[in-house]
Write a structure and sequence with these properties.
Helix content: 25-40%
Order of helices and strands: HHHHEHHEEEEHEEEEHHHH
Number of helices: 11
CATH architecture of the largest domain: Beta Barrel
Mean pLDDT: 82
Number of domains: 3
CATH class of the largest domain: Mainly Beta
Largest sheet: 5 strands, antiparallel
Length: 400
């Protein structure tokens, strides 16, 4: 039976496993003579040319069966076996069937090699984040140098009366209250991925090149403008969409200024939640920063990081609350630690002030885990001390 021309299929799973450099070299050594023999057969009019030691069809059948030990998918194993059987019967088929077989084999091997090379040689990009060092709370440049942990929240620059009232509604009255209102969750934008490796429902960060950017007003809603970016990296392409709601964003001059922020060829870092739609993968409400180069440091405090998420009240956005925390976080160094150094060292705990900084601004999962461990320890310690105090007071009471 003659094999049909092979189509490029991405249903195989060989790309899910990475090849070592040795395996990659073995694959190239195996494919090179196959592709060369197929090219020569096509140039010789599908005449089953004779090589130095054997005919074309015998060499193809033998070479396809003697493939290296690589993580081929089951589908590609079957295709290669079928090709080997088809070339073993090469002498018994017509010239037209030979043409289809050789052409199909060349297409299959080319696409197979391309996928294997792309999936195994490209690693996820790396980003340089700016330093997370904070100014001293009492330094002349610090915006909170005249404040203490017990200062009213209204004294913090930028909070204002309305925001102060909203935060008071959830029990946040002082700077200490603001810092002790811990994040309920985190968005992990520290996971760096290639475009082709993005997974639906996961948060990730990519570094890509802008192929095209255009902005336009929705024909159905004049108060909605759309910014579309076509991005590309070494593994694939992605269309990024940002929605701008409001009449002021429909101004042609404003849309022009937004598209100019992302010129063709610019390198951007993008963080967000990956969603799969009818047009492929996309990011939901993406965070975007244009980089001077792939090796430039990030200016953003959000992209490529663990971003805290807080339980808030209406009128206070997560970004605004993070800004407030960023302003007063240097005051965390003034927190009194109830545990002496010897006790912390014995139990492997960090200081309370360090835990307060790491819980709001974690540099990595390890620092976040250390902060959580210390703060949870404090809560259990206070619970145990409260129970001991209650037990002692009950023992002092006379029995009735």
């Amino acid at each position: 039976m003659v094999a049909e021309p092979f189509r490029d299929s991405r249903s195989g799973n060989e790309h899910s496993r990475s090849l070592t450099e040795k395996q990659l070299g073995e694959m190239r050594e195996w494919l090179r003579p196959l592709q060369q023999a197929l090219r020569l057969e096509a140039e010789n009019g599908f005449s089953n040319f004779q090589g130095r030691q054997e005919y074309f069809h015998a060499f193809l059948a033998r070479q396809l069966e003697a493939r290296p030990d690589l993580p081929f998918s089951a589908e590609n194993q079957c295709r290669l076996d079928e090709l080997a059987r088809s070339f073993a019967e090469y002498l018994n088929i017509s010239e037209g069937a030979r043409r289809r077989l050789v052409t199909g084999a060349r297409q299959f091997l080319h696409s197979f090699a391309k996928r294997m090379e792309a999936k195994t040689t490209l690693s996820a990009p790396r980003l340089k984040s700016k330093s997370l060092e904070m100014p001293e709370a009492n330094s002349p440049d610090s915006v909170c140098r005249d404040l203490t942990l017990d200062s009213p929240l209204l004294h913090v620059r930028g909070v204002g009366l309305k925001n102060g009232e909203r935060l008071a509604g959830i029990g946040i009255l002082s700077i200490r209250d603001l810092l002790e209102h811990y994040p309920r969750d985190y968005l992990d934008y520290s996971c760096m991925k290639n475009i082709d490796d993005l997974v639906n429902g996961e948060t990730a960060t990519i570094v890509a090149t802008v192929r095209r950017c255009k902005g336009f007003t929705s024909p159905r809603n004049r108060n909605l403008s759309i910014l579309e970016l076509q991005l590309q990296d070494q593994t694939g392409r992605l269309k990024l969409t940002r929605f701008l709601a409001g009449r002021r964003f429909s101004n042609p001059a404003y849309l022009k200024s937004q598209t100019c922020l992302y010129p063709q060829g610019a390198t951007v870092a993008v963080s967000g939640l990956v969603k799969c739609g009818p047009y492929g993968k996309n990011f939901h409400e993406p965070l975007i920063e244009v980089l001077q180069s792939r090796h430039s440091s990030l200016r953003s405090n959000s992209i490529g990081r663990l971003l805290p998420v807080y339980s808030l009240t209406e009128g206070i956005t997560a970004e605004r609350y993070r800004d407030f925390v960023e302003i007063v976080l240097p005051l965390a160094v003034h927190m009194i630690d109830p545990l002496p150094m010897s006790s912390r060292t014995r139990r492997g705990l960090i200081s309370r002030s360090e835990a307060m900084v790491c819980i709001h601004r974690p540099e990595c999962q390890q620092s976040l885990a250390a902060a959580r461990r210390r703060l949870v320890f404090d809560e259990f310690l206070m619970l145990q001390l409260g129970l001991l105090e209650r037990r002692a007071s009950l023992r002092c009471q006379a029995a009735t």
